[in-house]
Amino acid sequence: MIAHIVSQGECVGCIAYQYGHLPKTVWDDPANNQLKDLRKDPNVLFPNDVVQVPDLRDKAEECAAEQKHRFKRKAVPIKLHLELRLQGRKLANEEFELSVGNRLKRGRTDGEGKLEASILPNEPDGWLRIRGRKIPFSLGALDPVETTTGQQQRLNQLGYPCGQVDGIHGPLTSAGFRDFQNAKGLTQNGQADRPTLAKLKEEYGG
Known about the structure:
Blueprint: E1 2-5, H1 12-19, H2 23-27, H3 33-39, E2 50-53, E3 78-83, E4 85-86, E5 89-90, E6 95-100, E7 103-108, E8 114-119, E9 125-130, E10 133-138, H4 148-158, H5 171-183, H6 194-204
Antiparallel strand pairs: 1-2, 3-8, 4-5, 6-7, 6-9, 9-10
Helix pairs in contact: 4-6
């Protein structure tokens, strides 16, 4: 068993890929039960979380001698799903370009403003071009919604500015929360209370 300390930008998928496992094998290992209870989502971890990675087990396959054989790794590539909105409106049927790693995809969003693409689990960065605007992004860099940095990330990206993502719940973060609470019909206390966090997670989608 290897105790892997999470760095910013890592998720269970990329960690499992690094060690030669399927994501489900790592996430469902009983040694990670406490982490599962804490984080809930294998795609949203926090720096210094500890993921227990089980040892690899040998597997034998019968093959004919003196011939070439091709083996395909399961769960690779993985699917990246995006839903695009502008000021709350879904960007449906919009032309886009999406680049992740060395893969470039062109197409249109569907009627719900959604798109998907195949990527490798360890590709951390990319960009999306839509309506003439090029938007860079980092995969796996979203912190859990229970953390102040995760709340600031979500508020900023949803259009409720709360200043720098610094992990400090100061006046700007409170103002961002109040704007969000006002828009969603919640109590405007500027705090990360349970109803507000539930709505923030629902609106952001993770």
